[in-house]
Amino acid sequence: MALMEAKGGPRPAPGTLNQLFFDAVSKFNRPDALQVKRDGAYRPISHSEVADRVRHAARGLSSLGVRRGDRVAILSENRPEWAIADYACLSVGLTDVPIYPTLPADQVAYMLRDSGAVAVFVSNKMQAEKIREVRSQLPALKTVIGFDDISGLTNMSMAELEKRGSKGETRESIATYREDALTVKPDDLATIIYTSGTTGEPKGVMLTHDNIYSNVEASRKAIPFDGRDTGLSFLPLSHIFERMAGHYLMFATGTSIAYAESIDTVAANMLEVRPTLVLSVPRLYEKMFARILETALTGGFLKKKIFFWARGVAERWANEKLAGREPGALLAQQYAIAQKLVFSKLKARTGGRLRYFVSGGAPLAPDINKFFFAAGLVILEGYGLTETSPVIGVNTPENFRIGTVGKLVDGAEVKIAADGEILTRGPNIMKGYYNKPDATREAIEPDGWFHTGDIGELNDGFLSITDRKKDLIVTAGGKKVAPQPLENKVKTNKYVAQAVMIGDKRKFPSMLIVPNFDQLERWAAKRNIIWTDRAQLLRMPTIQAKIEKEVNKELEGTAHFEMPKRIGLLEHDFSIETGELTPTQKVKRKAIDKHYKALIDSLYEEAERSGFTDQHAIA
Prior knowledge:
By secondary structure, this protein is of the alpha/beta class. 41% of the residues lie in helices and 20% in strands. It folds into three domains: 17-184, Rossmann fold (3-Layer(aba) Sandwich), CATH 3.40.50; 282-352 and 355-469, Rossmann fold (3-Layer(aba) Sandwich); 472-618, GMP Synthetase, Chain A, domain 3, CATH 3.30.300. Residues 613-619 have low confidence and may be disordered.
């Protein structure tokens, strides 16, 4: 039985991504449809050049004997060739399979084998080496195409593929290519996206043209674009958030897409590109927030005093605006001074033209969202999954409420089940999991309702996410603890870089903390604490007590049974390379439990030895 239900606006008319592509090329024809940094500067690529290269690559693929419905993989970092390869595949009716470039060869092999990919685009020598390593395991794979010229490891380069497709081209053949591309149907399979797998084996999510097209149409109506925007693309295009919003949506709205050189150069590339829109996962905003606080705290007495005065003023201003009131004259004047003295510098670091940040992929801590709003940098938080193409709901300038993921987009329906799980239905819901009919039946009910696995609630049409159903910690006493809101609170502390709650089926919850070592070591040095390495530092009772105090401070007011009773300190941050984070920076809880089992067990053994009892925890 559903406890709460909501609907977005009317369902968008069905369409295809090919239709979207051709419409954008003819409507906008910008000289900088795409931008890429080469030889130290960003170079523009026009809509007409993109269209020509897509057509040539598409005809080149057809000449290789691939047929409609065949699967072709893309193993690459974000770059113009990724977009060109994608549109080329779609325009000749192929289903493409994006693969994270950070994955090791064995995981790449699983996805290529499961999808039966007949060809794969690779960006560079490192990715080509992965294919060479596993090629004998891939009987369906016929062709490897390199975006770079990687002789000896590929069958041909992208340039050679495009040259092959341009041969014998006539006005008639161009018209025929377009006509054929537009015969692709809304229900045809566009892509198979493998979930990053926070648990278990990756599943191939089958998304049709209309699944994604309908989400583009709904999202462009929700967020205002004016055809003159510039976006910075740095989240992996293999992920549906960047694929739909940073790729198709940007292209459909005439937004210039500039590719960051890498995730590590985002700050520098922002200053060069000066984007008006930036999409990211919460980790970017968490790091920006931590860096801002660190700069303020290490800038001397006067600088620190000005920053915290400005933050206090901005907080009061934000409270008025978020309550729907206009700040009074004195507060407005103070806020203008705060903007000039402090927050204008923060805006300058984004390039000075930013209209909106957009956040997705994981919950954003409300305190961090409010800080940016108060500073005059609005983060529009949204929600969705790979299986929902992805957007179900998103905050907009007109409907904005911190702590929620906004109202539902057009075509989306949501109901909250009796156990709190969010169920959703609409044109954006996947066709199913590739080669996994049982998993598909488990996820999608006969009447179309998809089980998201997230716990949430609806208030005044705004959807809030409280946690992942599978992440809920149920203590030995039966108490349910939602870890993500608690983790997000703790991560706002300047001494904390990462936080993960543990304690499922244990007597009480505990927390693993990766300290912000810049702040912690500075604090220790001021107190004349001497250490030789970080492992030694973390073993010191004084340091343990300091972090426990900071965690308890952030969680003040939390229910007693939710409070972590033990804190474990970790020497290294989580990473994609160690398998502890997904490519979109989400924590893999099973990997954390496995990697740090000895430390976790010791926390509970220590509690047993010390005679720890907690009637609230085990009641």
